[in-house]
Amino acid sequence: MIETYSRNRIATGNNLPSRELILVTNKQKLETLEKTPPYMEWLKEASAAIVITGRPNVSKYWIQDGSISSSFMWLRATELEVGVGFGAVFNFEDENESAKREEWVRNSLNILNDRRILAILGVGFPENKPKTKKLPSKEEIIYYESFK
């Protein structure tokens, strides 16, 4: 999945390399990351994790760039029938909570202080299929020519 990601150039804001990825497969590190507040218990069962970091000093679009990367990896995992869990680390609404979460991940993986930690994707092959979620219909979320 990461190989596919790296072969295919993923667009970034202003074409700047503002996001970086850390692939974690070590079981002990996965168990440490599982304790990232507010606790990502599903990570201890994952085969791997992909930590998405951003570099605000490189681009003001680091959040968008990391989010786009996350989406592409999620889509590729789905194509490969790999299970994916999303763990938000960066918290836009609560700076203190975000600092606590990011510091846990930063210390766990020796991430440089100029990087922000956006999220963690847990990947693997789940024992059971997740429950189907009722998604809104396209008529509820897609508008044509104007909002209403």
UniProtKB/TrEMBL annotation:
InterPro entries: Nitroreductase-like (IPR000415). GO terms for molecular function: oxidoreductase activity. This is Nitroreductase.
